[in-house]
Write a structure and sequence with these properties.
The complex is a heterodimer of chains A (231) and B (521). Chain A is an alpha/beta fold. Chain A is built from eight helices and eleven strands. In chain A, helix 3 crosses helix 4 and helix 4 (132-145) runs parallel beside helix 5.
Chain lengths: 231, 521
């Protein structure tokens, strides 16, 4: 279980508070107006931001003061997910070995991971030679090798077209299924949230709310979310 | 959003702090040694005051002439589009890596006693001009700084939003009105900063004063330091003069801090403004033509004179060339060793602490090479014979002098890489050397190699601190060239100058090219 216990962050005029619990293996969509603090919530999980007060735990262990790489978390960002100067194999390999030195065995695992995301034989290319969808698949392959139980997606596929985006979400779901991952995905699109077939955290008015069943929530949205979805 | 506090004790950060401390110790240590050794009691002699007056006089005139002549050239480049414009703008950056003594020799070929100008004047029955003395110093400084001034002023022109010129065109404003309403306010903003930068460069000028100046009416403070050293071997006087030089530089730097200096290193100078007012091109063509002739004819004259003599150069010239190559490589290596950890540490510390460290790395600008050289001499000569230290000291001082330029290029590059890829690298656990090897070095390759190329070229052509330390057997190529000139062996000097010019350009080109080959951006 991932819990936020009375967590508060203040940066000038901006505040976010969160007191909630996420089940292990949950698939969470994060919805809410721009600037409400969706990315802040993920940054707190990922370790890029330390709360002013409160604590964050995973499986009962306090992870509030761990550095990003010490946390049980893999992240796929909105952009800059791959190093353009490294080949696909080396990029994915960083998920296994942060020092970049790959053994023959590591290379074989990287090749398997690439095959799983439909990029068999593309290991020697550079990110610049790939399409946007293929680049997302490389990032997913790396996240799969990182062996972290929580996967964060920070509007990771927002640059892709609708069909491609659905395809990527299905791929993420398959990966989550196979590795029993806990998923947290920021999105602007309620259809993405429905596609996850899980729960949704609404972030609005300075607060991240307890996750609720997505279909029920979208059928009868609270005022803040309703205004955002209608707007 | 990455505001997580990082532990301070990380190896690269420590190395960067160490590099900053080293530069600080070198500069402040030299100054302390100089202050300790400075002559007490007698104070400044009339000749020292004369040197101070001349230093300020020539720097002021050089700055005014350079900036005034640069305005029409920059305007022509800003409002005309023509083939070769990009090449021209690139050439204007070249004097930065052109060895001073090479340019001086080229100017002598044109303006010297038996140069082209005097030959023409003589044929016309007019009195001859002399390049030696006060006006020769100013001429050489304008030669070097006119291109720099042009680039700074051109940047000012290109910073004017193009919408203003479009609006002026739609209002039917005449060129004169555009100049008054748009361009004059820009110039009023840019020119003082540009003039001040050139003034600063000229008050620490040594090689020009050494070769063209001298005597009671054309000796700068830097030259006076050298003379106290070499001719009188009077360390106390040299130290006193070094203090005077330091005071002048510090005062000028304090003024400069209040005036923002325009950017001449900026990218994008090769783009031309779309302009709708196009007055008759004659004036612009003339401005560009005269400027190019002034800058290129001396080098052409040098090439014509020197080319036949390159093959027959005496062996000591080639030995000196080898020493210069070693010094340049050493200086580039030291610059890399200082600049990389400094840039990483500056980025990591960030904020006021990062800026403080950056200032420490930039200190080389505040102290002149001869001041540092004097200090190092005072500290080392009781223990080691100075001529044994010539090459290492020259490489080290050159590296400290090149460091500010390197940091100007490398620090923003490291900051950009961390801003773009830092979160990803951190989430993957890329730390320390792995982060340097896998992320930072590959992505800053081009600016880093460019900076090292600058360091190598600057060091290759440097005639400064080496003149203090070297004896007859340990000359670098610029010093050897100076000796050939002093012996009036002008053919050999011209040949050696061509070799030096080629070495400087090739050194820069090789590094810069190395950074571009196969780089993914």
């Amino acid at each position: 279980m991932l819990t936020f216990e009375d967590v508060r962050v203040t940066r000038g005029d901006f505040t976010l508070s969160a007191d909630l619990a996420i089940e292990t293996g949950a698939r969470i969509a994060i919805l809410g107006p721009s600037g409400a603090g969706k990315s802040t919530l993920l940054a707190l999980v990922g370790g890029f931001l330390t709360p002013d007060s409160g604590r964050i735990t995973w499986g009962g262990t306090d992870i509030t003061d761990l550095t990003p790489s010490e946390r049980p978390v893999a992240t796929i960002f909105q952009d800059n997910n791959l190093f353009p100067h490294l080949t696909v194999t080396r990029n994915v390999g960083l998920g296994l070995r942060p020092n970049g030195r790959l053994s023959a065995d590591d290379r074989a695992r990287v090749a398997d991971a690439l095959r799983d995301v439909g990029l068999a034989g593309m290991g020697d290319r550079k990110p610049g030679d790939l399409s946007g969808g293929q680049q997302s698949r490389v990032a997913l392959a790396r996240a799969g090798l990182q062996d972290k139980p929580i996967l964060l997606l920070d509007e990771a596929f927002s640059a892709l077209g609708p069909a491609l985006k659905s395809e990527m979400i299905d791929l993420v779901l398959r990966l989550a299924q196979a590795r029993d991952l806990t998923l947290l995905m920021i999105t602007h699109d309620p259809d993405d949230a429905r596609r996850l077939k899980g729960q949704t955290i609404v972030v609005a008015d300075g607060r991240a709310h307890q996750p609720q069943d997505t279909d029920a929530l979208l059928a009868d949205p609270p005022p803040a979310l309703g205004a955002y979805l209608a707007g | 959003m990455a505001d997580r506090a990082q532990p301070l004790i990380r190896p690269l950060t420590l190395l960067g702090l160490g590099a900053g401390a080293l530069v600080l110790a070198l500069v402040l240590g030299s100054v302390a040694a100089v202050a300790w050794r400075a002559e007490r009691g007698t104070g400044l002699r009339p000749s020292d005051w004369a040197a101070l007056r001349f230093t300020l006089w020539q720097a002021t005139l050089s700055a005014i002439f350079s900036v005034a002549l640069a305005v029409p050239v920059a305007r022509a480049l800003a409002r005309r589009r023509f083939r070769g414009r990009t090449l021209l703008v690139t050439l204007l950056g070249a004097p930065f890596i052109l060895p001073v003594i090479v340019a001086v020799l080229g100017l002598i070929m044109v303006f010297g006693r038996s140069g082209w100008v005097n030959a023409a004047l003589d044929a016309a029955g007019l009195p001859m001009v002399s390049i030696y003395g006060a006006w020769g110093v100013v001429l050489a400084h304008v030669f070097f700084n006119l291109p720099l001034a042009t680039r700074m002023i051109l940047q000012g022109w290109l910073d004017v939003p193009s919408e203003r010129f479009r609006l002026a065109a739609s209002l039917g404003m005449r060129p004169r009105a555009i100049f008054r309403q748009i361009e004059l306010p820009m110039l009023a903003r840019v020119l003082p900063g540009a003039a001040l930068v050139i003034f600063l460069i000229c008050i620490t000028s040594f090689a020009v004063a050494l070769t063209l100046g001298g005597g009671p009416r054309a000796t700068t403070v830097e030259l006076a330091i050298y003379q106290a050293f070499r001719f009188d071997f009077d360390l106390s006087r040299a130290a006193l003069l070094a203090l005077l030089q330091l005071a002048v530089t510090a005062a000028a730097a304090l003024v400069a801090l209040r005036v923002s200096a325009p950017d001449a290193m900026g990218a994008g100078l090769d783009r031309a403004l779309r302009r709708w007012d196009q007055p008759h091109p004659a004036f612009d063509v003339a401005a560009l033509g005269v400027a190019m002739a002034f800058l290129l004819v001396p080098l052409g004259a040098l090439a014509l004179r020197g080319a036949p003599h390159v093959v027959s150069l005496p062996p000591e010239v080639w030995r000196a060339a080898l020493r210069s190559v070693l010094v340049a490589l050493g200086s580039a290596f030291l610059t890399a060793l200082l600049a990389l950890p400094l840039a990483v540490a500056i980025q990591r510390l960030g904020g006021i602490r990062g800026r403080t460290l950056e200032v420490a790395g930039m200190l080389g600008i505040a102290a002149s090479p001869l001041v540092i050289g004097t200090g190092l001499f005072i500290v080392t000569f009781p223990f080691i014979a100075p001529d044994r230290l010539t090459l290492p000291v020259t490489a080290l001082v050159n590296a400290v002098m090149a460091l500010p330029f390197a940091l100007r290029v490398v620090v923003p590059a490291v900051e950009a890489v961390e801003a773009q890829f830092g979160p990803l690298a951190t989430s993957l656990g890329l730390r320390g050397w792995a982060r340097l090897r896998l992320l930072i070095l590959p992505r800053i390759r081009r600016p880093f190699a460019f900076a090292l190329g600058l360091a190598a070229a600057l060091s290759m052509g440097d005639l400064g601190v080496v003149a203090l330390f070297a004896d007859a057997d340990a000359a670098t190529l610029p010093l050897q060239l100076y000796r050939l000139m002093g012996a009036y062996r002008m053919d050999d000097a011209a040949g050696a100058a061509l070799v030096l010019l080629a070495l400087s350009l090739v050194a820069f080109w090789l590094f810069d090219r190395g950074g571009r080959v196969d780089a993914d951006v």
